[in-house]
Amino acid sequence: MSEYKKGGGMIRGIPHDTVESSLPILATFIVILVAVGGIVEIVPTYYLDDAEPAVEGVRPLTPLELEGYAIYRREGCFLCHSQMIRPFRDEKERYGHFSLAAESQFDHNYQWGSKRTGPDLARLGGKYTDAWHIQHMRAPRSVVPESVMPNYPWLEETPLDTSITKARMEVLAMMNVPYSDEHIANWEADLKAQAGVDDGAGEEGLRKRYESKVWKHDGEVVTWTDSFEPTPINVRAFDGDASDITELDALIAYLQQLGTHVHFEEGVDYYHDKFGQPYRK
Amino acid sequence: MSSVAEKEQYNYDIVKVCVILGIVLGVLGTFIGTWVASQLAVPALSFDIAEITFGRLRPVHTNVVIFGFGGFLLLGGGFYMVQHTTHARLRLEGFAWAAVAFWLIGCLLVVATLPLGLTQGKEYHEAEWWIDIILALGWVCLTITTLATIAARKMSHIYVGLWFYMAMLFMVTYIFVFNGLAIPVDMTFSYSAYAGVHDAMIQWWWGHNAVGFFLTAGFIGIMYYFVPKHANRPIYSYRLSILHFWSLTFLYVWVGAHHLHYTAIPDWTQSLGAGMSIALIFPSWGGMINGMMTMSGAWDKLRTDPVMRFMVVSLAFYGMSTFEGPMMAIKSVNALSHYTDWTVGHVHSGALGWNAMIAIGALYHMITRMWNTEMWSTKLVNAHFWIHLTGAILYITAMWGSGVLQGLMWRAFDEYGNLIYTFADSVAAMHPFYVIRATGGFLVFTGLSIMLFNTIKTISAVKAGTNITLTAEAKA
Q1: What interface predicted TM-score (ipTM) does this complex get?
Q2: Do A150 and B85 touch (CB under 8 A)?
Q3: What is the pLDDT of residues A233-265, one digit of tens each?
Q4: What are phi and psi of B50, to 5 degrees?
Q5: pLDDT of residue A55
Q6: Could you say which of A8, A164, A168 has the minimum Cβ distance to residue B238?
Q7: Phi/psi zone of residue A166: left (φ > 0), alpha (ψ -120 to 50 degrees), beta?
Q8: Taking CB atoms and an 8 Å cutoff, what residues of chain A touch B47?
Q9: Contact (Cβ atoms closer than 8 angstroms) between residue B328 and residue B188
Q10: Minimal CA separation from A24 to chain B, in Å
Q11: Is the CB of residue A109 less than 8 Å from the CB of residue B195?
């Protein structure tokens, strides 16, 4: 075995011989050294206000949209589609206003992505009709001939599994996503109402709960300004069929709300200003 | 240094298991990689089957090549190196075998569950919470047995390769645990403990340090043993190894933020990440130079020894991709490269060029030493080298081309200030590159298949007693 050269044990006066001859010393040095960078960069995002400036309008997902999120994650959509618009002219032209930190504050986990094999989806909501989405999920190349996206024909044939919807909301509530006991208790009614399978019976309750201007969060009540009108919740048979709730209903409900919560105004600097009540202290 | 009598005491059985598993998972992982790459060229290849759509299968590819192929190289190579550089047989061998068992079960569960749609949705950390626990147990067992063996070393100094290996053990524990923290809803679903900005920061602290410690520190440790051993030359510079070890260990941790340039994370974090990334070129090249210059006086081996070629070319790729990385971390360059195939190309110049080639070199070295035999066919090793190299170059150059083209098409404006291209135009323009990329991937898969075949033939020949044993010089 060829060994490295001996006799260079002093590096600028530091006796490296001592370090590399002692497992405890070497191990301790490494354990401390590799912890520094992460602590300096990540911990401040939790207590610096400007890491996630508050903005009015961002609400938690409805039960149906939450199931849509789960399907989005299950199918690995984020591997080809980002949800993070950068502050460049071409991205503004193509996708809309750059993404704000607060817009994904309730996304456990975040869906910013790292690759655009397909376009960014951060502001997809309302850009296309439900009919377009239905056709696009069945056969993407029938609406975008250049597309390399897989077909997802089973989504409209698979009934939505809602067995853990309530548990999802309870887990998120534990992590400060502002679902109240009322939100959680009414999960099923709200889910059916949004998918349009209850003949409109639950729509009012759904809107009251999710178009609210008052959110209890982190133990304190946050109230949006009077003049702010929350974005209406989309209520309809998203897959075009009001007789049942399918995975496609949930997925389109999720896609159609993306990036629609915040109402961007001309002349407001969303990059540096803080306004409204902060969600986090 | 180590006489034949001393080698008898080493536990080679466990290394042999890891070596074979590594090669098998390498073949599987590159096959799946070729498959998903082909799907981007020919979308019909998903056959409308949910389990094999790109979104579900791509993480299977990344997990199998990184944690399967790379993981078993690190396990096997680590067990081999720690014994040879401490002159001690593995200590607490039960933990070592448990590490192999947990790791294998974890890898198989990943392969079984990701196609079913069970995913945490975190890149390179997709396995659901209960599989995470199995993998973490494996890692803890590996750490225990490695440290116990180092503690039992027969000399005062700890070998430089082991410093890097230890840095990997500790840092991967941090990042795997913290990034994996989640609250389970049930066995099929969990929510990350972090949201939005925080989740992004922690994800890329994990993501880049999986590269920095699993695929760099761990593999550099492997390099520090196998390159000097195979070249039969001493490490070029002891001082350089000290300098680049501590600077690499400190700097890598900071650079994850360069995956989030111009996103909604704070500006200062982006700039810090960019600055540290650029600084990282020095420790990276320190390792590259130390490895390359170890060849001084042994360059002639490149003419006759394809295993040496794998090792030297891997260092060349390491030098190239650690130049490319800092360049892509410059914010204005990243503005073009981010979200494009350039990133994919960069990753693969590291993965196919550096990681795979040093791993393959180390694997061939271990096979011949442990079974005390020449490979069944040196010609096939040579063929493997050229096929792998061609595949890697096709892959990387295709992704450079498509990445830069994508970036330029997305930002192109005409004279009236309108976007020239739709997004779909850029997708169509990628087609030829995706075909070339899939071809490159197929060549890499072919090379590893040849390696598997050659390995099976070699071991069979040893069992049948028809092999050619190593010369005393080669064994030294």
Answers
A1: 0.94
A2: no
A3: 999 999 999 999 999 999 999 999 999 999 998
A4: -55, -45
A5: 86
A6: A8
A7: alpha
A8: none
A9: no
A10: 9
A11: yes
- Fold of the domain spanning B3-475: Cytochrome C Oxidase; Chain A (1.20.210)
Residue B124 in this model has a pLDDT that exceeds 90: yes
Q: How far apart are CA B361 and CA B287, in angstroms?
A: 17
- Asked if residue A67 lies in contact with residue A165, where contact means CB atoms within 8 angstroms, the answer is yes
- Encode pLDDT of B352-378 as tens digits: 999 999 999 999 999 999 999 999 999
| Residues linked to residue A115 through DSSP beta bridges, in sequence order | B339
Distances from the Cα of A180 to the Cαs of A172, A234, B10, in angstroms? 11, 21, 61
Concatenated DSSP letters for B31-96?
Answer: HHHHHHHHHHH-GGGGTT-GGGSHHHHHHHHHHIIIIIIIHHHHHHHHHHHHHHHHT-PPSSHHHH
The two structure tokens encoding residue A19: 């370090």
Q: Considering Cα of A100, then A104, then A105, then A109, what sign does the dihedral take?
A: negative
Q: Is the dihedral of CA B249, B251, B254, B259 positive or negative?
A: negative
Q: What letter represents residue A199's amino acid? A: D
Distance of CA B58 to the CA centre of its chain: 16
Q: List chain B residues with CB under 8 Å of A149.
A: 43
Count the alpha carbons within 13 Å of B36 in the hemisphere toward its beta carbon. Answer: 21
- pLDDT in the model for residue B1: 43
Structural tokens at position B311? 């090792």
DSSP secondary structure string, A225-257?
Answer: -TT--PPPPP-S-TTS-TTS-BHHHHHHHHHHH
Residue A273: per-residue pLDDT: 45
Which tokens belong to A29? 């040095």
Chain A contacts of B84, Cβ < 8 Å? 1
Distance, in angstroms, between A226 CA and closest chain B CA?
27
B199 vs A: CB within 8 A: yes
Nearest C-alpha neighbor of A69 from the set A111, A127, A117: A111
H runs (alpha helix) in B68-195: 71-86, 93-113, 129-151, 160-180
Nearest to B53 among A78, A102, A150 (CB): A150
The closest CB to that of A101, out of B189, B192, B264, belongs to B264
Are A5 and B335 a contacting pair at CB < 8 A? Answer: no
Contact B172, B219 (CB under 8 A): no
d(CA B197, CA B181): 16
Three-state DSSP state, A223: strand
